[in-house]
Amino acid sequence: MKNTKFFTLGLLLAGSTLAAPLAAKEGMFTPDQLQEISQELSEVGLEIDPDALADLTGFPMGAVVSLGGCSASFVSPEGLVVTNHHCARGSVQYNSTAENNYLENGFLAASKAEELPAAPGSRIYVTTEVTDVTEQVRQGTESLEPLERYELVEQRRKDIIAGCEETAGYRCQVASFYGGEQYKLIKRLEVRDVRIVYAPADSIGKYGGDIDNWQWPSHTGDFAFYRAYVAPDGSAADFDEANVPYQPEHHLKVSASGLRDGDFVMAAGYPGSTSRYTLLAEVENTFNWTYPTFQTLLTDWIATIEATAPEGSDARVKYESRLAGLNNFEKNLRGQIDGARRVGLVDRRRAREAALADWIAADASRAAYGVAIEELADLSEESAAASRTSFWYRNVSRPSLFSAARRLYRLSKERQKPNAERESGYQERDMTFFRQGLQALDRRFDPAVDKAEWVLFLTGYIGQPIGERVAAFDQALGLTAETTAEELPDLVDRFYANTTLGNVETRLALMDATTEQLEASEDPFMQLAVAMYDYGFQLETESKTRSGRSLALRPTYMEAITQWQRENGTLTYPDANSTLRVTFGNVLGGSPRDGMAYLPFTTLEGITDKDTGEDPFNSPSELLERIEAKDYGRYALEEIGSVPVNFLSDLDSTGGNSGSATLNSRAELVGLLFDGTFESVNSDWDFDPRTTRTIHVDTRYMLWVMDKVDGAQALIDEMDVVE
Amino acid sequence: MKNTKFFTLGLLLAGSTLAAPLAAKEGMFTPDQLQEISQELSEVGLEIDPDALADLTGFPMGAVVSLGGCSASFVSPEGLVVTNHHCARGSVQYNSTAENNYLENGFLAASKAEELPAAPGSRIYVTTEVTDVTEQVRQGTESLEPLERYELVEQRRKDIIAGCEETAGYRCQVASFYGGEQYKLIKRLEVRDVRIVYAPADSIGKYGGDIDNWQWPSHTGDFAFYRAYVAPDGSAADFDEANVPYQPEHHLKVSASGLRDGDFVMAAGYPGSTSRYTLLAEVENTFNWTYPTFQTLLTDWIATIEATAPEGSDARVKYESRLAGLNNFEKNLRGQIDGARRVGLVDRRRAREAALADWIAADASRAAYGVAIEELADLSEESAAASRTSFWYRNVSRPSLFSAARRLYRLSKERQKPNAERESGYQERDMTFFRQGLQALDRRFDPAVDKAEWVLFLTGYIGQPIGERVAAFDQALGLTAETTAEELPDLVDRFYANTTLGNVETRLALMDATTEQLEASEDPFMQLAVAMYDYGFQLETESKTRSGRSLALRPTYMEAITQWQRENGTLTYPDANSTLRVTFGNVLGGSPRDGMAYLPFTTLEGITDKDTGEDPFNSPSELLERIEAKDYGRYALEEIGSVPVNFLSDLDSTGGNSGSATLNSRAELVGLLFDGTFESVNSDWDFDPRTTRTIHVDTRYMLWVMDKVDGAQALIDEMDVVE
User: Fold this and answer.
1) Are B615 and B209 in contact (CB under 8 A)?
2) How confident is the model at residue A57 (pLDDT cuts 50, 70, 90)?
3) B50 occurs within a structural domain
4) CB 3.0–4.6 Å: which of A146, A720, B45, B456 could bond A549 by disulfide?
5) CA distance linking residue A25 with residue B670, whole number of Å
6) Full residue range of the structural domain in which residue B684 is found
7) What is the CATH number of the domain that holds B98?
8) Quick one: average pLDDT of A234-263?
């Protein structure tokens, strides 16, 4: 899953959501739900009071934090935070130079004074309060027209957030659960002074690289440490030498004796998005059309970048990260398509809908559910059709400078409204990230590659019948029914020849431009953005209208699901939405394919077996020597005769869970969740207990590396390491 | 391993041989050796009398036959022979037409009258007599000079064969064991009227195709049936409608109840070649130089063919089989290089040699061993150096027509000698295969591809320093130190423009040409062959001289190995040499890599899981329906809740073992050996009991397909199927 990648790229492909929770360990529960299954938790081995898990500011949940896209947790009273290496790697890269190549050599601050600022935009979010605001958001919205409903709900969410953020240093969100059945205000301290404390070398933290991504057996030391800093008065503040380590109310103890096969484990983190309750129409559209179509496009896209930015070129450096992301996404889609075929996802969804329909039909008092579901099914069909028709238009809208122009022009429009009424993403609270986005563009942009990508997308676009194309776009680009793919490069040349948006100062300056100024711009990308504004607005309005309809229907559908499942003895959990969730289960291997088995642990010796001396299998020689010497220290697991490196569990996780604290029955840290097996990538749609397995780095390996290889004894001493 | 491929391609890469037999189930024993370990065989579970296995014409060995490159066995009193699908597939292809596509649909003769002739050259060899001829071959050779020794040994082998083949219908060989320590004359009835009886469709018999080749878990129905026909008087004869089924003295019973995890199994077949006793110098040269160099060349070679014969072209059809073979070989080399690194092959060999040296040093009476081994080590160094220096010359000698010209010119030279004195391969007994070789060339030859290949090899060749190149070859081609790769295509153009060897009639006619006629030929390939004859003869003489030295040294080395191992309680077996061998062990899964396990059986449901509907995962719908219906009949294995498809064992096997009868403790047929796991491909050099696993198709799956899918009830009835 490697959620930073997963997240960024998830956005590439707009997709909605829903699926079948009828199995053993499935469930990304909100902490307050755990009280409902406290008896089950105790029965399966939880030793602490299950009710304690519901208290987000108590122990252990108070120690669990979000990095925005990744999960993490406090492991010392001095604000030390542990997360995945791949979640903190950007900060290591940010501080690396040719002389001090921390990616290659690792980074370990000798003292707090030598801890380095994390990459710009790095945050640690500490939840301080969660309030149910369902009534405030939904009250009186049922009777409205869909678009009005959508807009009123959004306005109320923004208003509630604005009120919450009046306390300086906090960042708030109003999260929607069960498709709009429930809303919660989550208030979080926004730590802005984040520093990198320790990250092992890529040859440990990224061992196996893309080859082992989504693969078991893995041997990745996917851990790294940040520290949260605040102003001396304890308030959130920008980086300042006078800042002091944040003192969390709670932190996790770190286990050095760890787990055995079959042991109880749970993970607490911020899973991003799942589609467990999606209706059949959307599942069919996704797996029969969107994913295969997009996978083909991704393959062409990767080839286009590789051809335009050859290995070793300056352009390639700028696109390495995108290429890795696209390859990662392509592999993910392949896994999803393959997994869906294997488990019979579409048929299973069809069967579930039929079973739900039977349950509804069995009792006349449930008739309203049936009506809502029927309307929601129609809506799903419409959404699927809309996503198919807009597929190529969304792709031709990707080029970096066109996208920047669109956002700038939209900003000028939104600026005409009072801040509180502006579209989310264009409010004053969003401007820091908006500016950073415009700045970061340079590092990932090369005109020749951008143009080649655009030509690729345009080739797909003009491949559509003229009637399915967007007239305004054709006109703006001078495309006709006769335009051939060969003419496209010349057609778009003028955009790259005449634009000034490639200059970062120009882009930033345009954040203050008025709508009229932008409409008078001679920049071809800005002219295109202006020309397409109405069409974009129309697409957005149609989408909002569908969302407004969904807001009226989906809560009813989820109520039906919830009641139906309750009668079947299953507690319904909401789809993942980047809020704190708890999943529990066991250390468990599995049989991903007929004739094969995954063992629950990998060992130090497996690292040596894989090592070729070449990236990504190039362990530091010191590490290989310690393995050769069987210098296991106190970290060995007797059953496997070695130090466990990674382990498998049947926990329910997805992108965003990366870095999640994996806890044992006493809520001690035993690992960090960092990946899922290849057979699990379609679990976002359908949790199959036979094949879904989550991958963790074992704290025994983390401590072993710190102790025996990297000499990070001071950090070990700072943590509460328990046997 | 897929031995037909393996074999053809093994020849691409000249290589010598020898390795470490110090582990559990290792051992390709000659049947007569089994008496020495009869107690062990009984202890591990063999229920029949172990001594019976030593009788090659008794039961069960009398039922085991060779197809020349594959193994097989009689399974009915009417000459019915079972082997691998991939061993008989050429015959299915030979009989296929656009109207009757037996590859796609499978072939099942409704009656004996409808059985079709196998592909030309198909043979079934039934061993009738084995005689030790060591004394006859070796007597008085010790005192000779190396080249004389080599030639006398070869002449004696040819003479013994000639004497043996005076009985019409028999084919004889004098096989060398333990590097020339022992020679055996093997007399075999050569059944020339071979007919194809039944082969399932490719979508069963080749299920998984190249993707699953050398891979576990596999689900390949790799079985097919031939029938041996002889003249009414029982003698071997060419195809004739009057011929009758051969009545073997023995045939195997076929088990329908099969095996369970851990059960005793043994396999009897004709493994081609292993290198278990090779000295360190050769192992180092092979794994540090030859294999990596050749793997790189293979990659370029594959790319060259793919570029010159694009998919869908007529040329591609001719090269499909070579491409599959090269890809197969490349994958094999990668596996070997990877496996050697993983098990530390070079270090292990070094350690074994050191241990042997210690044993020799421990007793002055063993001094002669030490001397011989030292000389053999020098010889290995020399052989390794010779193989490096001739690497590119051997490659530039590959082009089909150059190779044909060389063989024809050599034939004209050999024809000047009495038949008995001719080089092996050029005697009258070899002419049928010689002619077939010249005929078959057309089906795998396209001038443009052949030329592109030649240019590729020549590019490598001219990349060498001029001093390491072959002067005569440079002169014949007009290559100088200044020749660049760009000039090569033009340089070789005249060969393809002016040759007449592309014509099959011309080639065949030249089999009768005299040396003088060929020397007067204006064909550029023939002129090149004539020009290079002396150099080729020199290479051959040097090689024979080294072989002659080896013949004096290697038997002493093997005697040292044998004595040393005997003291360690290990019975030394000879390297594989395409003679009948027996290997025994157990049904056994394994852990090929840290964190992963292979289960011993695959199941019918695994076929459905893999099935995508597209080649090579496109099972017949009838088969999928039978699985869906759980129509297991009497073929299910309770522990796995399904019919076992393929199974793993720790048997010791290699290319040539394909089609080997896998027998249970009562010598009933329980499977057919057809492949090894990817982690096993380097077992030819070093049998690692941790990772070496052999793959078999289970007779329960074979019978299930025959019974439930293909309606081959008549064949089931013809066999002795036992529970």
Assistant:
1) yes
2) confident
3) yes
4) A146
5) 40
6) 15-123+192-276+575-722
7) 2.40.10.120
8) 95
SS3 B172: strand
Beta bridge mates, A695: A648, A675
Nearest CA in chain A to B609: A342
Structure tokens at A705: 């590396």
pLDDT at res. B44: 86
Give this prediction's pTM.
0.88
Tokens of B328: 């197969």
With 0-12 CB in 10 A as exposed, 13-18 as middle and 19+ as buried, what is B277?
buried
* Mean pLDDT calculated for residue range A669-691: 92
Q: Bridge-partner residues for A171, per DSSP?
A: A188
Active site residue B658: yes
Q: What is the DSSP letter of A614?
A: B
Chain A contact for B603 (CB, 8 A cutoff): yes
Question: How far, in Å, CA of A112 to CA of A226, rounded?
Answer: 11
Residue B286 lies in a domain: no
| Selected residue of B596, B603, B612, B679 to mutate for chain A interface (largest A Cβ count, 10 A) | B596
DSSP designation for B426: S
Do the Cβ atoms of B216 and A646 come within 8 Å? no
List pLDDT tens digits, range B462-500: 999 999 999 999 999 999 999 999 999 999 999 999 999
Q: In a 3-state reduction of DSSP, which class is residue B265?
A: strand
- pLDDT, tens digit (0-9, with 9 covering 90-100), for B159-202: 999 999 999 999 999 999 999 999 999 999 999 999 999 999 99
Q: Does A605 touch chain B (CB under 8 A)?
A: yes
CB contact under 8 A, B596 and A601: no
The rounded mean pLDDT for chain A is 93
CB of A553 within 8 A of CB of A379? Answer: yes
pLDDT value at B109 more than 70? yes
Q: What distances in angstroms separate CA B498 from CA A120, A235, A481, B398, B525, one per listed residue?
A: 71, 89, 52, 19, 9
Exposure string of A569-597, with b = 16+ CB inside 10 Å and e = fewer, is: ebebbbbbbbbbbbbbbbbbbbebbbbbb
CB contact under 8 A, A217 and B606: no
Q: How far is the C-alpha of A332 from the C-alpha of A336, rounded, in Å?
A: 6
H-helix or E-strand spanning residue B105: helix B102-105
**Cα–chain-centroid distance for residue A103?**
23
Q: Is the dihedral of CA A348, A350, A351, A356 positive or negative?
A: positive
Q: Is A344 a domain residue?
A: no
C-alpha dihedral over B508, B513, B515, B518, to 10 degrees?
A: -70
pLDDT, one tens digit per residue, over B602-632 is 999 999 999 999 999 999 999 999 999 999 9
Q: Which residues of A touch B603 (CB under 8 A)?
A: 594-595
The number of domains in chain A is: 1
Q: Report if residue B398 sits inside a domain.
A: no
Q: Is the pLDDT of residue B24 over 70?
A: no
- Quote the minimal CA–CA distance from A695 to chain B in Å: 12
Judged by a CB distance cut-off of 8 A, whether residue B125 touches chain A is no
Query: Looking at CA atoms only, how far is residue A648 from chain B in angstroms?
Result: 10
Q: Identify the helix (H) or strand (E) that includes residue B66.
A: strand B64-66
Q: Which residues contact B176 (CB under 8 A, 6 or more apart)?
A: B182, B183, B577
Task: Say which of A342, A606, A612 has its CB closest to residue B595.
Answer: A606
Q: Which of A30-44, A482-496, A562-576 has the lowest mean pLDDT?
A: A30-44
CB pairs under 8 A between A and B: 65
Residues of chain B found within 8 Å of residue A216, distances taken between Cβ atoms = 595-596
Q: What percent of chain A has pLDDT over 90?
A: 85
Summary mean pLDDT of chain B: 93
The reply to whether residue A593 touches residue B606, judged by beta carbons under 8 angstroms, is: yes
Confirm whether B251 is a catalytic residue: no
The ipTM, to two decimals, is 0.83
